[in-house]
Specification:
By secondary structure, the protein is mainly alpha-helical. It has helices spanning 7-39, 47-55, 66-74, 82-91, 112-127, 136-153, 158-165, 170-207, 214-227. α2 (47-55) packs across α3. The termini are far apart.
């Protein structure tokens, strides 16, 4: 017989249910709505729509993550995960302007991109953290924060609250744990890509003391800027 979960573990899995199930669903609806608003036509959930969207991505924001690029190219928004949706909405330049609020700013967000960016931060706290527990107080704070963001974006929070309070079956606990492991593995891979790019930047900085390499430095910096991944 499986060992019963503690409340702090159940709270954590309910948060996983919100972030990995309810949030992507809301982001997909938002993506499709913003697409229709900006381009004056319905998003078709097909390769033609994906190709058209990619054609409107700003050159400097071209996605270098092969998995994300493949999902966008395929065009089926029902298969878009949080990473893909945050790229499309926040970083592609094809929908919203990137958030301008400084990281860790105490000022409240004042536009949609900053609210979406707050959701991204909530998701990253889960996806990049090795923990599997959360206290009742922290859980309520996170849920209240998410609910407030939903309301500011005009989203219904009914599903969010149901996910936060609904019972957890053994089968669902297993599915949520596996989904979290997959999400964290993907993010670890992206972190390694970023670290690799940072290493290349440090190498270029070291070359600055060598005048004969100036032309080569310019080429390297241009290449790195064009390939820096968006998370």
């Amino acid at each position: 017989m499986a060992t019963p979960l503690k409340t702090i573990e159940e709270n954590f899995l309910r948060l996983v249910r919100i972030i990995l199930h309810d949030l992507p669903h809301k982001l997909r609806i938002y993506f499709v709505s913003e697409y229709a608003r900006k381009y004056g036509s319905q998003y078709g959930n097909d390769t033609a729509s994906g190709t058209f969207f990619l054609s409107n991505v700003l050159p400097r924001n071209k996605c270098r993550d092969a998995e994300v690029r493949s999902k966008v190219q395929n065009g089926d928004s029902t298969a878009f995960d949080c990473t893909t949706l945050f790229y499309c909405i926040l970083y592609s330049g094809a929908l919203l302007q990137p958030p301008m609020r400084p990281r860790n700013s105490r000022n409240p967000p004042f536009n949609s991109s900053e609210l979406i960016d707050q959701l991204r931060e909530h998701r990253n706290m889960l996806a990049h953290s090795p923990g599997t527990e959360i206290s009742q107080a922290d859980f309520r704070t996170r849920v209240n924060d998410l609910q407030a963001i939903y309301q500011q974006l005009g989203w219904s929070s009914i599903d969010l609250l149901q996910a936060a309070t609904g019972p957890l079956t053994t089968a669902e606990c297993f599915r949520l744990q596996q989904a979290l492991l997959s999400e964290r593995a993907h993010n670890n891979a992206l972190d390694q890509i970023v670290q690799s790019h940072d290493g290349r930047l440090l190498h270029v900085e070291g070359m600055l003391t060598h005048v004969p390499y100036v032309r080569r430095i310019h080429v390297c910096i241009t290449s790195i800027r064009q390939t820096k991944p968006k998370l």
